[in-house]
Structures are given as structure tokens and as C-alpha cells.
Amino acid sequence: MTVRLTQYAGGGGCACKIPPGELDALVATLGDGASQPKDPAAELLVGLDGGGDDAAVVRLDEERAVVTTADFFTPVVDDPYDWGRIAAANALSDVYAMGGTPWAAVNLLAWPRETLPMELAAEVLRGGRDVAHAAGCQVSGGHSVTDPEPKYGMSVVGMVHPGRMLRLDAAEPGRALTLTKPLGSGVLNARHKATGTVFPEAVAVMAELNRDASVAAVAAGVRAGTDVTGFGLLGHAYKLARASNVTVAIDAAAVPLLADARAAAEDGFVSGGTRRNLAWVEPQVAFDELPALERLLLADAQTSGGLLLAGEVPGHPVIGEVLPRGDVPVVVRG
């Protein structure tokens, strides 16, 4: 009998994140600067300022800084090996979103050992290992717990040059806005969970590393960016605009979509996470006359999405531009 892993999870992939508004409020309680480490061993370059970046960065010296992050989530697809690949690519993406190179990772696994065979867990771990090794990242050990709901991801450590980092608060007016992967994994994952239909293009895109896009962005002189995951394109664009005190303009017609995404949205396969994303970000966005369906797709909760970069990167579509701060942080042009 084939086990459908997605049926063991309340939410799927990055759509199971804590809603962005609640997370903002939570992070704000920790980012007031009232508590600092005693005799810190390293200087914090990127932390919770601006609502939290993709990873923490601490300086070693003038040429090197350590990037550290962790990411895990519930099954986004039924195939355990593919889930492992996708979860690992997603965790590594936080390092690439800072312009860094992942060096080492450890596994994070929660498993319902009394209801799901450990052989499936081994396939999940194998998928994660294979993607990390393809990235040149060492994988050794980790942590596991028994849990009624399966979850998997990685804690990753990498390296970045302090002067060539990508970060949320460095976007400048006059820059193009680039997106390196198409949207739509959220609605396709929702359809997959409901119907069992497999979307190979979506799996391939989610399992794809953001390594080459990150390297190209740094080489092109880009210094501001983030990856597009559970808060959708609009949510991550808003976080970038807010941290950099700019307005981000998105040309809706230029945003690439996975082949079957619009049809899935039209058929109602929209996650609660996507709807919460849109409700959170709508007050911060001028939508022009954009239809409700298009708004949902721009807020679609992505899993292991691409990089959103304040700068033009060869080989990837320009979807808008960075403007001086206007009346709202995000403008969507139909």
C-alpha cells in the first residue's frame, strides 16, 4: 500500500508557517535590544532588526562571516525522497538568500514512529542528504523526536563575505526587481494533497538549489534580496520594502507561474496560509485593478521558492523595480 505522507499533516510545506502577522508580533518582543550576550564571541551583522532576515550572520574577520539558519516543515508531497530533497533545498536556500555558501548541515526530524515505518524516514533523510551533497554541503547527524505529525528539515551553517552579503535592508531605488523561480507551488501542493495528482515540474522547481542564482546575483553586484517561501511573493516583497524603507513595484503580468498553477487556483486549491498572507499584506499594497485570483497567486505560500533580488540578474525575469518610498510599501501594476 502506498503511504500518502501529506495526509499526516495539517498543513503542507511552508504553508504551515505561523501566520506572518503573528510572527511579526512575536519577533518584535525579542528585537528590542534589551538583552545582549555577555562578552560576545563574534559581532552580529544580521539579526532581528527589520523584522528578521533569512539567517543570522556573525563576523569572523574582514573577509569571512558565518551564516546560520534552520528550517523544517510538514510533508509537501507524498514521495518521501522528494520531500527530503525539497526540505533540504529550502533550508539551504536561507544561506543562498544571504549570498553565502552552505558548509555543513544537521538533520531535524520529527516522526510518528508508531504509525509510519522508519524505512520512509530513511528515504526522507536520503533525499535531504543527496541535495545537500549536490550543494557541496556536509551532512552529519542531527536531532530526532517522536511526533504525531512528520516534520523534516535542516540546520545549516555557511560562510559569506561581509561586504558582499545579500540582505533585506539594502534595496536601493532605481534597481530592477528579479525573481528566480516561478510561483505556484502552494496551489499545486494543495491540489496534490487533496487529489494525489503529482506535478513533476513543481517538484523539480522546489528541489532546485538557489545556488547558481545566488552566485550570479553576488557577481552582478546585487546586495539586497530574500527568498520567497511561506509568506508569498507579496509578503516577502513587503518585508524587503519595509526593511529598506523603499517601495517595491511589481508588474503582475511579468511574474512567472508554474504551468498548472492558475488552473489549480481557479479550481479553489488555495491554502489557508495563502489567504492569511493576502489578508496580512493587503493594507500595505496598492493593487490597481488586479482581480482577486491574481492577488491570491501573488500571495501564494511557496515552498522552496526562488530568490527575490533588488537588481538585475542575467537569465532571470525582471518583474518590477525598486522605487523611492511612496504612500505604500508595495505597488502591484496590472
Automatic annotation (TrEMBL):
Cofactor comment text: Binds 1 Mg(2+) ion per monomer.
Segments forming domain PurM-like N-terminal: 52-160
UniProt binding sites for ATP: 17, 51-53, 71, 94, 142-144
Residues where Mg(2+) binds: 54, 94, 227
Active site: 14
Record-level Gene Ontology MF annotations: ATP binding; magnesium ion binding; selenide, water dikinase activity
Top-rank EC class of the record's enzyme: transferase
Entry's Gene Ontology BP terms: selenocysteine biosynthetic process
Enzyme Commission number(s): 2.7.9.3
Site feature: Important for catalytic activity: 17
Transmembrane segments: none
PROSITE patterns: PROKAR_LIPOPROTEIN (PS51257)
Keywords, ordered alphabetically: ATP-binding, Kinase, Magnesium, Metal-binding, Nucleotide-binding, Selenium, Transferase
Quaternary data: Homodimer.
Family membership: Belongs to the selenophosphate synthase 1 family. Class I subfamily.
Biological function: Synthesizes selenophosphate from selenide and ATP.
HAMAP family, A to Z: SelD (MF_00625)
Name of the protein described by the UniProt record: Selenide, water dikinase
Species of the source: Streptomyces triticirhizae
Gene from which the chain derives: selD
